[in-house]
Amino acid sequence: MIKTLLDEKLNKKDLLLSGRVFHVSCAAHILNLIVQEGLKVIGDSISKVRDSVLYLIGSAGKIDRFEEATRLVHCSCYKKLEYDCPTRWNSTYLMLRTTIKYKEVFNKLSLTDTNYKSYPTEEQWSNAEDVSDKLKLFYHITEQFSETQYPTSSQYFTKVCEIKLELEAWVKELNPLISDMTSAMLLKFKKYWDGVHILIGVASIFDPRYKMRLVKFFIPLIYGEEASTKIQEVRSNCYDLFQDYKSKLSAPHDSLASSSSEVTSFTQGDRLSSFDRFVASTGATVEKRSELDMYLEEDLLPRTPSFDNLSWWKTNGLKFPTLQKMARDLLAIPVSSVASESAFTTSGRLISPHRSRLHPTTLEALMCARTWLWNDLNGLTSTADQVSCPTLLDEEDEPNSSGLSQL
Known about the structure:
There is one protein chain. By secondary structure, the chain is mostly helical. The chain has helices spanning about 1-10, 25-40, 45-55, 60-70, 90-100, 105-110, 120-145, 155-170, 175-205, 210-225, 225-270, 275-285, 290-295, 310-315, 320-330, 340-345, 355, 360-375, 400-405. Helix 2 (about 25-40) runs antiparallel to helix 7 and helix 10 packs antiparallel against helix 11 (about 225-270). The two termini are about 40 Å apart. The model is unreliable at about 255-265 and about 380-405 (pLDDT under 50).
């Protein structure tokens, strides 16, 4: 669909940069694919840890014995054991993170419970700790990408560069399990990196705390000898995008300027016409720098946590009118298009067996009631006749109030 739409828009010449920044992949989805690729490699290595958790949560009696062993070894962790789900990579991280803290408890149970035969070896415990340590980075970055208040695209660049540098370091690990896992993750990462590094690099320029300095700092760390070419690529795309915006905005600006001059000449006659000619004659002899040149030449702002990038561009529109419009569009690109829970799963949204047994009228009433209550909490209109209600009924069925009485 993206390719079809891109070809259609290119034929009409409606796209900026000839469509090079038309499609932006969801950051959380990319991270999900990268981690899933790594988990395919390490699945067997942490199987004993998974089997141990499954054994202990299998019955109430085993849970009681586990809690008793926890008290005997004076374990300070009180978190509940979690079993991972194959389609949710974060559940594997959470399982490992919690289980590792109970290592001594599992050791105690292996000595007292004759039926417990899946105790991991020291090497397997070590592998579990290494894997958990590596997945921690992806877990926290995905949470940041999927916050309710979505981060702007300028924050995307630093996080992605951080992941790339960490993967490059992990592939050199002495542990062959981590090295193999990272190699698989790097192949998946490179597939998406080439498609996003230009746009996210340009977006990072529109943070006055970084500008081109951030690109010049990270690109050499990632590309090495090819860094100068990649930096120039980002810079050229930024200037090309600036020219596209300038050309699109010049016509309305010229008409507005002519209209303004007509009003001025009508009200003030020719009193300032001599001044206009003076400005035009003196300006012709001075090389005019673009907004982008002046912006990039200014000093960087202090990197303070309370800095509001969007507010800065809002207040500097008179100084950089074209750049302000570019920043408005670039910084509005969401880093992630999914909620945090959806980012961690490869399965679709399913109605549970309990809810699927509800009568369609009852389910419709529940959905409507939820909409009304949510709108009421947010100060919106909450009356039934003014709020649209999602329906699960056939077109020939008439909604009635019997479902509401079943609530």
